[in-house]
Design goal:
It contains ten helices and eleven strands. The protein has helices at about 5-30, 45-60, 75-85, 105-110, 125-130, 140-150, 170-180, 195-200, 245-250, 265-280, and strands at about 5, 35-40, 65-70, 95, 160-165, 185-190, 205, 225-230, 230-235, 240, 255. Strand 9 and strand 10 (about 240) form a beta hairpin. The structure holds NADP nicotinamide-adenine-dinucleotide phosphate (NAP).
């Protein structure tokens, strides 16, 4: 039976540490770390994410602002808001919730965020810093995976690490962080030949595809560590990962559940990045 990597528990531990650090930060500096979250339109999933981020800020004692803009917001209006948040001394981190309505240019907005306040680490300046291994912020989900590994005493050094998925948000930075941690990294995608055989080589398998129960027992080596980043909604509304948990759990040495694995870590890493930004 695999060891369950409990993202809820690890996330709660890290948030408690951030709360303590925030209290000492306030004593030392006289102000709080501040996060601004911008949401445009009424996408229900985005609204839930934004509410959770606000609640997480309150939990650790941060100052936070949520800017809810109507779907009819123009590029100029959104740019102007980002400019004002860049200039606002109370705000150390800015997060624009994606996806934006189709008429808005996401790249233009992300490029406009001051890299020093880019707590999502999506700005090309921060992406480049991650590439060279000299970074201030790490993208929240891959950083969450690294924290889960570290706190479960799983060291990627020298191990064969396979990442399925090559998105800019998860797969690519995930591969880079595993490489920085001295893993031997392979990145797979929809054009990978004989995916199952490549995955069976993995000592650490990180799955970020977006397809429910895609990874079965035939894709996992006995004793592998399996990290499931996927978040998929079943027809009955239940959340499920990219890994067939029931099939893979008996083979793996450690595995993250969905929900309760990587998911809770993402916002926790956002808080960590905001504290880092405030310190700088
Ligand atoms: P994405 O941008 O859609 O990328 C999916 C990746 O999976 C692509 O690189 C794609 O390959 C690859 N892929 C798709 N089908 C495949 C197949 N049959 N075989 C091999 N590779 C395949 O998705 P994402 O943003 O990275 O997110 C991935 C999953 O993680 C989603 O379920 C998402 O909801 C979840 N997620 C969770 C969190 C969290 O906090 N837990 C955060 C972010 C994302 P190509 O490049 O060749 O198309």
């Amino acid at each position: 039976m695999a060891k369950l990597i409990d993202g809820k528990l690890i996330s709660a531990q890290i948030r408690a540490e951030i709360k303590e650090e925030t209290a000492s930060f306030l004593k030392e500096k006289g102000y709080l770390p501040g996060l601004a979250v911008v949401i445009v339109g009424e996408d229900p999933a985005s609204q839930v994410y934004v509410r959770n981020k606000k609640r997480a800020c309150e939990e650790v004692g941060f100052y936070s602002e949520v800017h809810e803009l109507p779907a009819s917001t123009t590029q100029e209006e959104l740019n102007a808001l980002v400019d004002s948040l860049n200039a606002n001394a109370k705000i150390h981190g800015i997060l624009v919730q994606l996806p934006l309505p189709k008429h808005l240019d996401e790249t233009e907005v992300l490029l406009r965020i001051d890299p020093a306040k880019d707590v999502d680490a999506f700005h090309p300046y921060n992406v480049g810093k991650i590439m060279i291994g000299d970074y201030d912020f790490l993208p929240c989900t891959p950083a969450g995976v690294m924290a889960l590994l570290e706190r479960s005493n799983i060291d990627p050094a020298g191990k064969k690490c396979v990442v399925i998925g090559r998105s800019n948000i998860v797969g690519k930075p995930m591969a880079m962080l595993l490489l920085h941690a001295n893993g031997t990294v392979t990145v797979c995608h929809s054009r990978t030949r004989d995916l199952a055989a490549v995955c069976r080589e993995a000592d650490i398998l990180v799955v970020a595809i977006g397809r429910a129960d895609f990874v079965g027992a035939d894709m996992v080596k006995e004793g592998a560590v399996v990290i499931d980043v996927g978040m998929n909604r079943r027809a009955d509304g239940k959340l499920t990962g990219d890994v067939d948990f029931a099939a893979v759990e008996p083979i793996a040495s450690a595995i993250t559940p969905v929900p309760g694995g990587v998911g809770p870590m993402t916002i926790t890493m956002l808080l960590k990045n905001t504290l880092t930004a405030a310190r700088k």
